[in-house]
Design a protein that fits this description.
The protein is built from three helices and seven strands, in the order βααβββαβββ. With about 150 residues, it is an alpha+beta fold. It is globular and about 40 Å long. Strands 1-2-3-4-5-7-6 form a seven-stranded mixed beta sheet, sandwiched between helices. A hairpin with a 2-residue loop joins strand 2 and strand 3. The protein starts with 5 loop residues before the first strand and ends with a strand.
Amino acid sequence: MNRADIEIIEIRKHGEMAHEVAKWFHAKWGVPLEAYAESIAVCLEGRAGVPQWYMAVQGGKIVGGLGVIENDFHDRRDLAPNVCAVYVEEAYRCQGIAGRLLAFVCEDMSRMGIDTLYLLTDHTSFYERYGWEFLCMVQGDGEPAMSRMYIHRM
């Protein structure tokens, strides 16, 4: 696999992929398909801001993706917007794709006038590699344990 031929795309410019993208995220995270479809439909309206969805694509195949939504199912509504649903297919991991997606979304959001992003995760040390800083612990909706909240300032 050659990571040079992996393209990062904004779904707002590729409406033809909306259903496929919603199904892909649903399969990875188990969030209802309708929730992804609704968020992607708002993204397709073409306005700047949240929500936005991004995919890493190789030869027409989705190999990774992430989104930006107002709140990623946690109790700190003041920490917004949130990068969510970060996922890279297992066969494509450890090739810098997640880093490329994260850099792309930060640049795109900055162009839209959004200079701070948040990210909820249970990972430790992964996001620091890409310029994210641990901010605090937050309570995820319906989660028994606290999760890590990261911040990225552009």
